[in-house]
Amino acid sequence: MVTLSANCRQSRLSTGGIDVGCEQSNQLTYKMIAERDNETVKIERMSSLLIVAKARVWESEGWQVVVTDPDGKSYAPAEFDRLLAA
């Protein structure tokens, strides 16, 4: 089950994945992409702490996870601590 807060959306992607995120214009967001088998999930959050927490949970469930910061730099799970220190 996916629970979304106000002003958030969930939509099916043409690739068969799910896009879950909050539409917040003019604000910097952190993005997580998780892939497993033929599924892709994308999540956006305003907080690096929240996105890293989510990414760690998804990775623990066997997903391949990458987090991108507002500057476009990508972080693999081994680099999540550097993302939080930034």
Q: Can you characterise this structure?
A:
The protein has helices at residues 48-60, 80-85; strands at 8-12, 18-22, 30-36, 39-45, 64-68, 74-75. The protein has 86 residues and is an alpha+beta fold. It has a six-stranded mixed sheet with strand order 1-2-4-3-5-6. A hairpin with a 2-residue loop joins strand 3 and strand 4 (39-45). The relative contact order is 0.17. Residues 1-7 have low confidence and may be disordered.
Fold topology:
Elements: E1 8-12, E2 18-22, E3 30-36, E4 39-45, H1 48-60, E5 64-68, E6 74-75, H2 80-85
Parallel strand pairs: 2-4
Antiparallel strand pairs: 1-2, 3-4, 3-5, 5-6
Sheet of most strands: 6 strands, mixed
Spatial shape: globular
Order of helices and strands: EEEEHEEH
Radius of gyration: 12 Å
Could you report the average pLDDT, rounded to the nearest whole number?
81
Q: What amount of the residues lies in strands?
A: 35-45%
Tally of contiguous helical segments = 2
Derived from helix and strand composition plus strand pairing, the structural class reads alpha+beta
> Level of helix content?
10-25%
Number of strands: 6
Can you give keywords for this protein?
86 residues, 6 strands, disordered N terminus, single chain, globular
Concise structural overview:
The protein is α+β, with helices and mostly antiparallel strands.
